Amino acid sequence: MLRIKIYPAGNGDAFLLSAAGSNVLVDGGYARTFDEYIQSDLLEIALRGERLDLVIASHIDADHISGLIRFLAVNEKSAEPKVVGIEDVLHNSLRSLTAVNNAPIRPEDRLILDAINRRGHPAHVDILSNDPKEISARQGSSLASLIRRGGYRWNNHDGTTSIAVERTPVFQFAGGNIRVIGPSQQRLDGLLKWWKGRLRQMGYSGPTGSGDEIDDAFELICEHAGESAVSRPIHVSARERKTLEEVYDPDVSITNGSSITTIIQLGGARVLMLADAWAEDIVPALQTLQSNGASMLFDVIKISHHGSLRNTSPDLLRIVDAPRYIVSSNGNAHGHPDIEVLTAIVDRPASFSRTIYFNYPTPASALLRDHVSKSGVPFIVDDNATDWIEIVGQTDD
Asked: Looking at CB atoms within 10 Å, which of 12, 249, 281, 357 has the fewest?
């Protein structure tokens, strides 16, 4: 049996998957998510004599990795962890995408890096605080710096290779395995090119290889990239509501496109974890697996990008299904989730009922409660799902 916990991470993502002594942490929400919710569960894992088989930082966005930054800062060294042991960390940062820089950085370029790093990590957008940055802007506060300084196993080695579908398809551990279905190396190359362009726009003309100061600058620029996203109003009446086919608009966020997306097989269950990935990348990856005999019926699907209509396409929903779906967002930042995505999920014919788990009540979850499935397939809305969800696997790969 698999147990999944969806942490109340504001507008972010944080999940813990546990079964038969194996544990996987996927993203960490904000620093407060770790302080108030995740840390106690990890201490309990350590008390049982267990460890985290994998920690996955899906991509560099503040609402996904800030809690992981806090975790590794508190945990300190891999050899003597203060919270819990970690077998491996999956994280694509600058060290994973380019060679180490050994060239000197000119004083004028160093000033630009210092200005980027002093800006610090984005503030938590949902909670007013006397410490709005949550994590200090000190040098070495990026996730990459903490992984390296703590001596953690990183991307199945030392972090100098990236996690990409072409290179690292499957990670095995005692209780199960994780299949990587994204990102592609093309998306990671695009992220690196975009980041170099942003540096040049800021007037930086120095080396762009990995190093202490520049590793921090890479993550901080990526973290702040999502702050300009515009909230969308949610349609409030059935008369105004449109179908997903009518409103779907593909995501173009470079950082979202770099998401580590996985199929986690653990405790006899298969979970599709879509992070904030682009549907246009996930569909062909799944079609390839399907052509090789893999079932597209999962036990759980974590919907991409908090249920945004820019990341769940009609084509994706024509391929995959599950009796359980997870939506992680309080809806405060960008109006997620979108009701068009939710109704498209439950309107499809199926031989089973569906449960949609939300970790917060949102306007969209309230609208979904009143929705009548066009196919007549029953569904349940659970909009306070922040305790363990127990799952007896129904599918086999």
From this structure: 249
Model confidence over 120-157: pLDDT tens digits? 887 654 433 334 445 554 556 799 999 999 999 999 99
The one-letter amino acid code at 271 reads V
Handedness of CA 68, 69, 73, 78 (dihedral sign): positive
Whether 72 and 150 have beta carbons less than 8 Å apart is answered as yes
Sign of CA dihedral 93, 273, 28, 337: positive
- Domain residue spans of the chain: 2-227+234-391
pLDDT in tens, 36-84: 999 999 999 999 999 999 999 999 999 999 999 999 999 999 999 999 9
Best CATH choice for the domain 2-227+234-391 from the list 3.20.20.70, 3.60.15.10, 3.20.20.150, 3.10.20.30: 3.60.15.10
- Between CA 244 and CA 361 the distance in angstroms is 21
Contact yes or no for 22/174 (Cβ under 8 A): yes
At residue 230, φ and ψ (nearest 5 deg) are: -100, 135
Distance CA 54, CA 22 (A): 9
**Nearest 5°: phi and psi at 321?**
-160, 165
